[in-house]
Amino acid sequence: MRKIKFFTIPLLLLLMSMKGDLPAYRYFNAKGKKVSFNKMMKELENADIVFFGEQHNNAISHWMELEVAKYLAKAKGKNLVMGAEMFEADGQLLVDEYVGGKIKEKYFKEQARLWPNYSTDYAPLLRVARENGLKFVATNIPRRYAALVNKGGFEALNDLSAEAKKYIAPLPVNYDPNVECYKKMAAMMAHMPGAKHGASNIAKAQAIKDATMAYFILKNLSEGKTFLHFNGSYHSDNHQGIVWWVKQQKPALKILTISTVEQDSLDKIKNPDDLKLADFILTVNEDVTKTY
Fold first, then answer.
1. pTM of the entire predicted model
2. What is the mean pLDDT of residues 172-178?
């Protein structure tokens, strides 16, 4: 009995100290129930496509992306394909050369038009692919072509060369302005000074990004594989954006999504509408340091 009591006291002290910790993040499912990382990953293992919707400057979001990638790389082996919004389709050769170990990261960084937070937030994801011999797909439309749509609508893409069109979803795209994410974006931009007549084009520019990412995801997905895609939350929230485009072509695919939200406390999902965002919601303490 003395040994049991001796063990119980420090254990109680440990539990009491843990109760006073400040959790940085917590996962919930779409029903608002807390879920562990491992339980979530067991479900993600069986998906055809996993969309991880990040907040671009959220440190926990980026860390969890890395942990999801490492877990799936171990669980799926060569049956995992990775890809991201942050890399443009016309840079695929550079991505292949770097991930395949053909060129040094120095040359990749000099030539690949990388986001400013590449070194801290996205380089670790490419290293997972590089170290595990995985394909990493640059899924996004080159930004210069999205800018054309922003200015002149989808018609502005028609005069591009056949070579340029290789980096865009096949035209014409089946755009639906009534999809909620595009409808909201157009409505929001219509109230911005000077943007009234271009509001619909701003939504179309968003849509051509989503359509192109969906196109390259499906182009690189084959039976038995899981595609893990990283993108801003807005591109996959509410199973719209890229998810909508994928479902138009392959409705039978099993798609699971993660969205990132920030809250002042993590006991529960505070905004009921956030439960609709994704299959899993990564809630992060709003005081966590931003990466930029």
1. 0.91
2. 96
